[in-house]
Every structure is written in structure tokens, then in C-alpha cells.
Design a protein that fits this description.
CATH class: Mainly Alpha
Bound molecules: 4-fluoro-L-phenylalanine
Number of strands: 0
Shape: globular
Number of domains: 1
Radius of gyration: 22 Å
Order of helices and strands: HHHHHHHHHHHHHHHHHHHH
Number of helices: 20
CATH architecture: Up-down Bundle
Structural class: mainly alpha
Helix content: over 70%
Length: 486
């Protein structure tokens, strides 16, 4: 049963989409993951590759996803089916919609656990659990918090329930209302924290760590991590942005909204780095501590600072909100698919999805205690969910979206949907046809050991390959020139 005849929900306010999409993009990825992987992969060089991925791959793919969503007016599965059908292309491409929906769902299964850490640390801050604790105690507290499945399970369950409550209420009354007050709140809290970081003594060192790009060549692993993270942080290839785009009013500019969301996301990640690393350096801690980085070091630092408890509360409150506004976007695709095309009420769809999600996230949660030994090729359930989604499903899904838009669909519907001047349209087309696919394939080839790429050394070859592939591509199917001519 489809509800094609019913008008689809739309964002109510002018800022609805931008707030919701920024809420989706800005999350644990910016504040928890970005600092710790930057620490692990050595700082500046990683940041540079990450920024290049955002520009060359992330922004064009995000524009495409929003356009697909708005054109197809449905969940990723339905929207892609319609978009592909309109162009008269093979229906196999709509498998990309399934991949995206599954990816968003899988991400939430492990994301809920980390969001649970955040909520539990907010609680600990509020109840003064860190009073008088030393560095060793902090490690002990982090381990103890994870060791007890009932405790950890309580917090991840709370995240799943809160997510489903919001999503179950619908696009306007649930998602939009929630982001309308949470997003401004988060910005204020982050600004206060940065101002605080600027006076904590480690600011210069943090700046150098993040922005000194001559930090040596980056490992292949690091480049794949940067690419995967660019997708993760912009919520791409996981159904979130595409589904939010399906509620975008026809008059809104896709290019402008994409740029605002990507810019806000990047600024928040860098600001989070500038808020967190000064504290870490000022307290003589190591930036490469891994996933526990902010949880083990920040409470310690907050404790040693004047008014630290207050700032600690602000920090974990901001982190929890950021996590929640992202979590809701991860399941919106599944819930909208169930309620739009399976005829299930939104509330039932949300709770049904929630139950399956809760079961799998519980398995991921157990990776930190009783299930720590349930490994396959050295990875726990939690690690597998993270690895499969960020390293494989997102880049491959993004590649599929770019190729579909660049080579399979016709110029007209995309041009109409994107609504940009011919020059910008041609630039977008160049990005989805050549730049993004080549970038993704090169990083994959490097990570799989097929070719060893050192960007510093090989950039003339890469540039040459890009020009050659563009020429061959345009000889075989000329679209750029036509696009330029309007
Ligand atoms: N962009 C979110 C973050 O950086 O935390 C994570 C995310 C949200 C990934 C939504 C995927 C998604 F569909």
C-alpha cells in the first residue's frame, strides 16, 4: 500500500531542514570521533585529507542525496526507485536505497552505545562522581562504566527509547521541534567551552597539532579513515540526508543549504578539536588515546579547573544533545519507509524499528563486557558495525550515488532539482562524474594494497589521471559541455 496520493510531510519553518540536517551532521562524529582519530592518525596531515574529502566528495554527494530525496519524495528505497524510473534506468540502482537505509540503522546500533557513554557521563558529572579522582581513577571509572552490562545497557536503552519517542512523533512535532531548541543550545555551549579552552594554556599547541600539515605522509589506513569519516560526519550514504531532503520544500536552494550544513559541520569539528586538545595538552595527556579520549581525559581536566564541574556538565550536555539529534536521523529512513510504503502507522513503525535496534545495540553494548571475546577476525560486534559502515558501506554507497547521478540519470531532472546556474551545475557534474569517484577509488586501491599512493609525491600523476579520465568520459558521453551551455 503506498500513500503516493497523500501530501508528504514537509519542514514547517524556513530553518527546519538546515537545523535538522545540521543536527544530523553534527554529532559524536565531530566531538568524539574526529578528535580521537585525528589523534590516532597524527594530526595535521589527516585533517588536510579529511577537508579535501569533504570538499571534493562530501559536498557534491550531499547535494545529490538531497536532490534525490526531494525529487523522489520518499524514503531512500522509494525515492531512488522513483528517480531511477523517471530516467528510465535499470531498477538495480534502487538497491542503493536499501544499502543506505541498512547503513543508517547499523550505525545507530553502535552509536547508541557511545551516546549512552555520554549520557552516563553527564549523570556522573551532575552527581559529582569524579570528585578527587586521579588519572588512574578516570581510567578505572571508564572501565567500570563499561564492565557492568546492566549499567551500560541502561544508558544505551535510554538513547534508543528517547530516539524512538522523538521519531515516533513525526517530522514536525518530533524532529523539527527537538532540533529547533537543541541546536542553538549546542552552539552556545560550544562557544563557551572554546572561550574557556583559549585561556587554558594549551591552545597554541592544539592549533599546531591540528593545522601543521607537514606532519609527514599519512598511512593508507589513515586516508581511508579520513574518507570514511567525511561520509560519517556529513551523515551521507546512510539515508539520513536523503530522507530529510524528501521533506524539503520545492523552493529551497539545495546548493545553499548543503554549503551551510557542510560548513557548520566542519566548523564544529574543528572547534571541538580546538576546545578539546588545549585541555589535553595543558594537562600533559596524550592525543592518541583512542575512543576513550574525551571520556578519560576531559573529566580529569575539568576537575582541575575553576568552575570545572559546571563546564563538564555543559560539555556532556552538549555531547548528549548532539548525539540525539544525529540518532533520530539514522532511523528516520527506516521509519519513513515503513510508514510510507508499508502502511504502518508512524508510531508503530518507530517502536517496531526500535525493538530490533535495541536487540542489536545490546549485542554491541555487550562488546564492552561479557561479549568482549565474541570476536570475528579480531573484531567485536561493536567494531564490526563501525568498520563495515564507515570503511565500506558509506564510501561504496557514496560512489554509487555519484555514478548514478553522473552517468545514469539524465541532465534535465537533476539540473531542475539542483536549480543552480550552468557553471555551478557543470562543476557539480564534474565532481560526481570524475572527482568523487576517482578520489574514492584511489583511496580504496591504496587501502586494499593495490596501489601505494603518497599524495605529496604522486599528485601530478593523480591530476593527469583525472584530466585523462575526464576527457575519455566526455568523449564517450558528453555532458559537461552541454551542461555549460545551459
Ligand atoms: N553525522 C553524525 C556524526 O557526525 O556524529 C553521524 C551520523 C548521523 C552518521 C546520521 C550517519 C547518519 F545517517
Amino acid at each position: 500500500m503506498t500513500t503516493d496520493t497523500q501530501p508528504r510531510a514537509q519542514w514547517l519553518g524556513r530553518w527546519g531542514f538546515v537545523l535538522a540536517a545540521t543536527g544530523s551532521a553534527v554529532g559524536l562524529g565531530n566531538i568524539w570521533k574526529f578528535p580521537y582519530i585525528t589523534g590516532e592518525y597524527g594530526g595535521g596531515a589527516f585533517v588536510l585529507v579529511y577537508l579535501a574529502c569533504i570538499l571534493a566528495v562530501g559536498i557534491p554527494v550531499m547535494m545529490t542525496e538531497i536532490a534525490f530525496g526531494r525529487r523522489g519524495r520518499g524514503s531512500p528505497v522509494d525515492a531512488l526507485r522513483r528517480v531511477v524510473k523517471e530516467s528510465g534506468s535499470g531498477s538495480a540502482w534502487s538497491l542503493l536505497g536499501w544499502l543506505a537505509m541498512l547503513c543508517g540503522f547499523m550505525i545507530l546500533c553502535f552509536y547508541a552505545v557511545v551516546a549512552g557513554w555520554s549520557f552516563s557521563y553527564l549523570w556522573k558529572m551532575l552527581t559529582g562522581a569524579f570528585a578527587g579522582a586521579t588519572g588512574d581513577d578516570m581510567v578505572g571509572i571508564f572501565v567500570a562504566n563499561n564492565e557492568n552490562p546492566l549499567n551500560l545497557g541502561f544508558w544505551s536503552t535510554l538513547v534508543v527509547v528517547a530516539t524512538m519517542l522523538i521519531v515516533g512523533k513525526g517530522v514536525q512535532a518530533g524532529i523539527e521541534r527537538c532540533v529547533t531548541w537543541m541546536m542553538p543550545g549546542m552552539v552556545v555551549m560550544l562557544a563557551i567551552l572554546i572561550a574557556y579552552g583559549a585561556f587554558s594554556g594549551g591552545f597554541g599547541e592544539a592549533w599546531r597539532f591540528l593545522f601543521s600539515f607537514n606532519a609527514g605522509s599519512l598511512s593508507s589506513e589513515g586516508m581511508l579513515a579520513a574518507l570514511g569519516h567525511a561520509f560519517f560526519t556529513l551523515s551521507l550514504a546512510s539515508g539520513a540526508i536523503l530522507t530529510y531532503g524528501s521533506y524539503l520544500p520545492a523552493r529551497a536552494s539545495i546548493a545553499r543549504t548543503t554549503l551551510s550544513v557542510a560548513a557548520a559541520d566542519t566548523v564544529v569539528a574543528l572547534m571541538a578539536g580546538l576546545a578539546i586538545f588545549p585541555i589535553i595538552f595543558a594537562n600533559g595527556m596524550s592525543p592518541g588515546e583512542g575512543p576513550g579520549l574525551i571520556f578519560m581525559s576531559l573529566p580529569l581536566a575539568f576537575q582541575a579547573m575553576p568552575l570545572g564541574t559546571l563546564f563538564g556538565i555543559l560539555f556532556f550536555m552538549m555531547l548528549s544533545m548532539a548525539a540525539l539529534t544525529s540518532s533520530i536521523s539514522m532511523v528516520e529512513a527506516t521509519v519513513s519507509w515503513l510508514s510510507d510504503s508499508k502502511g504502518v502507522s508512524r508510531r508503530t513503525a518507530a517502536w517496531g524499528t526500535g525493538i530490533v535496534l535495541w536487540l542489536i545495540s545490546t549485542l554491541a553494548m555487550l562488546s564492552f563486557n561479557v561479549g568482549a571475546d565474541w570476536t570475528l577476525v579480531g573484531r567485536t560486534v561493536f567494531d564490526w558495525l563501525d568498520y563495515l559502515t564507515a570503511r565500506w558501506m558509506m564510501p561504496l554507497g557514496g560512489l554509487g550515488v555519484a555514478l548514478l547521478a553522473g552517468f545514469v540519470l539524465k541532465n534535465e531532472p537533476m539540473r531542475e532539482e539542483l536549480g543552480v546556474p550552468p557553471g555551478w551545475y557543470a562543476l557539480w557534474l564534474f565532481a560526481v562524474r570524475y572527482l568523487a569517484p576517482l578520489g574514492i577509488l584511489v583511496i580504496f586501491a591504496d587501502a586494499l594494497g593495490i596501489a601505494r599512493i603518497e599524495f605529496g609525491l604522486h599528485w601530478p600523476w593523480l591530476l593527469g589521471a583525472l584530466v585523462l579520465i575526464t576527457l575519455v568520459g566526455e568523449l564517450a558521453s558528453p555532458r559537461l559541455r552541454r551542461a555549460l551551455m545551459g
